[in-house]
Specification:
The protein is α+β, with helices and mostly antiparallel strands. The protein folds into three domains: about 20-155, no CATH class; about 175-345, no CATH class; about 365-500, Glutaredoxin (3-Layer(aba) Sandwich), CATH 3.40.30. The chain has helices at about 10-15, 140-155, 175-200, 205-235, 240-255, 260-280, 285-295, 300-315, 320-325, 330-350, 350-360, 375-380, 400-410, 430-440, 450-460, 490-500, and strands spanning about 45-55, 65-70, 80-85, 90-95, 100-105, 110-115, 120-125, 130-135, 385-395, 420-425, 445-450, 470-475, 480-485. The strands form three sheets. It has a five-stranded mixed sheet. A four-stranded mixed sheet has the order 4-1-7-8, covered by helices on one side. A hairpin with a 7-residue loop joins β2 and β3 (about 80-85).
Amino acid sequence: MKTIYIFAMKPIIFGLIAFWGLFLMQCSHENDNNKHSIMQNESSGFTKITGYIHNRDIYPETKEVIVNVAHISGQDRMTQIKSPIKKDGTFYFEIDLARPQDVTIEPYLDFLYLIPGDSLHIELNFKNFSYIRLSGGKSAAINQDFFRYFDATGYRTTQYNYRGVGTDCEMNCSWAEIRKKMDKERSEYRERRQAFLRKNSVCDEVKYMTEAMIELDYYRRLVSIIMNREMMYGQETMPEDILMNEVNEAAVKYFNTDLYSFTHFRFTSAYMGAAKRLTKQDSDENLANWAKQVAITDTIRDFIMTISAGYALLSKDLEKFEKYSAHVTNEYLLDRLMQTYRVTLANMVNPENISANILGKPTDFSNIGSLDNNILSKIIAPNVGKVQVINISTTWCAPCMEALRQTNTLMNDYVGKDVCNSIISVSPDNDETRERYRKIGIDDEAIHYMPNEDAAFLMKTFAPIAFPYGILVNRKGVIVDYGPHVVPGIKLRDKINLLLEQDHLIK
């Protein structure tokens, strides 16, 4: 299984606008008080966000404002917290935070730094989307400094699909050319940052975070390019020991405070990739011992175990989560892990909240056939009563075809049982595509080809998407799991067997 990176998916990725999150926190605040009350345990503090939209009547069909919170796995996954927009243009959030962290309010704000226990008032304008006004506590002052910095330097850092330090010739240039281009771009951002700081007085948090973003972003991108060049194309890169020395220097410098952003989690994912490359580590067995050996500081070790535990939660693998999270000692990371765990657990027991949003908010899943507005409803409706495995696939993706072969073999073991498999094909509907599917044993009847509107729906709903991608549905027609991990070999058989007995993934 391979992630399809941005440079290889331009026709699809450029159409993505937001990831519809994994958790219960995605559900709109329906009660009169609009209280965000997912967490029942004590936490470090709620950040209150009040808001007002000028000229609200220009777009009356826009019903809600969405805050995206980055996932602790370091993956491009978002938890979405929604607030309805009232008729008078007001909206309200209470967000449970363990420590300060960055979020986005797409499409209005691609970076917003929040502080636990603080309050923030945001004014937007549907007549002029560049109009953004912040007021309130310390969060307002910090963010106003960030906005001035971003505007002055041209550096942007959205939570996903962002254009930070990088290069446009990752595969076509020599390694020396790539490094030269990246170093030049990093130097330009550094110089712009210094010029800004000379002219402006800003909060200490902004001084630290703006430097950390540039440096960590640089090394995250560097490791990503190396992995792509070596693993996918077999092209030359830099020596492993030199790479790890540079990455470790950045880690020591920018993981030495209690101020962390999504950039730190993304960097840690890259750090793990570089360390595994150096140590030839290709298994997650004894991950804790490996992390102790390769991590330059205890904080980096804790981050490694946190993002591993976070990815286990994305995969609905509670056994691995318990195994990895037991080795995390950092208070901030433990707090975030347990928040995410509680939400994930609640959704595994009660998956209707997620499924309803994806499928168009049905109130009665037994009547899902009446929902004909998206491709998933059309596929799920005639198969209610069966456990369904749905693959999003394309014939030009070798891992997709291999996953389909394995899924086809798996389905043979369930012949005569209430289990079925469907394929949503991103490839065009033509004789060549159909023949490729037939060669691996996929019948034409199992394949659903997407018109443009359905493709847009899927890419928006599950963005950013990695191929192969799977969706798991219980007998009631409720989506209980989805992601690149829903493929044979990653407990899929166990999950199917469990769903044949009950309606959720908690034993």
